[in-house]
Amino acid sequence: MPEITLAVLAGTLLFTLAGCGTTNAGTGAPAAGGSQTPSGTVAMAPLDTTPPQSTPASTPSVVIQTVSGDTSFFVTPSGNIDCAVTATYARCDIGDRTWSAPPKPTDCPLDYGNGAVVDSTGARLSCAGDTLLHVTTNVLPYGHGVQDGQVLCVSQPAGVRCQYGATGHGFLLAKEHYTLF
Length: 181
Description:
The chain is built from one helix and twelve strands, in the order αββββββββββββ. The protein is mainly β. Strand 6 and strand 7 form a beta hairpin.
């Protein structure tokens, strides 16, 4: 029963229009005001453990796989985004993208902006000397998610959305844009 409640809750959250965060739609610069999202995307609201009273008939349910312990790896059906999820963070790397990352921060000595990370401190573009691309062949179908502790990632046609539930911070990573919130 908790898995069903989580699936209904996650489905409801995926379609909540919160529209907060930083958006890049191809220019490499954050959107003015940091609160706009590109047309066709939605922002996840912070995870709420209170079960919804009712779910609209048009809201598709999301199938959530709850895991714990080791790192869970998955790739999207397009094969373009690969992710790692643990109880404390999520990181997704992207292969093909039409957007550019902003200038590399001075405190990043490695490759910058090839993906996104979320943990208890917030969401940001990744600074990494490795890649998650092609680490796994475990495809996470669209409409399915992986949750470990407070970290939830959902594969959807619009990209991968990951969120740290206790803070509400997260990201959407897609070929055409990214959003940090």
